[in-house]
Amino acid sequence: MAMASYATTLLPPQLHYWNSILPDTTMPKALSQLVQPGKSGGPSQVFFFLEKDMHPGNGKKYRLAKNSTRATFLSRKTAESIPFSSSKMPQILHQYSLKPGSVEAIRINETIQECEGQGIKGEKKQCATSLESMIDYAAFKLGRNIEAVSTEVEKAAADVQNFTISPGMKNLSAAYKNKVIVCHKLNYPYAVFYCHAFQSIRAYMVPLRGSDGITVKAVAICHTDI
After folding, report:
1. What InterPro entries does this protein map onto (predicted)?
2. What's residue 168's pLDDT?
3. What is the pTM assigned to this prediction?
């Protein structure tokens, strides 16, 4: 979990809001970097695996580089002033000077469709278009005494290398009695997260060590509904 301190007078409004709603929760670097302009977020790669393979000593080749995306959070006021609906696609494309049918336009439409689509059975979901809306959703579902975690890469890693699971894996679902919300960053001009909660997932914090010595604290999510 990221341990970061900020001078109160220099905090952006979104971080003030985090501290007011979740005063005892440290914000992970992956989120705080999406508030600070010009900084990169956490790793963007997603890998698939079997839960039975998650044990110390097991390894696999990955590329865990830091995410260079510039899609940062907008303030809630700004985000709410911009259309975010499939029925408003012409206005959205005009907002970003994009042509219908372009790669960027297709990605925007796919993200909105994912947010508007019906969730799977037992899933409770919401797309957060601002950090404030993410905070409100998490606090509403879990309360204000929560732990926020994200995958963290110690430093820039080699292109592709073998990562081995180190001792110390933590079952977050068991620790918090399955009260877990998972938020995935979506492909959009600004930071939008798909947040969902349901009983059929298990979440872990998994320590990894690369063949070049780099260490990673990785969040692993297992879907047990399929």
Report:
1. BURP, BURP_dom
2. 92
3. 0.82
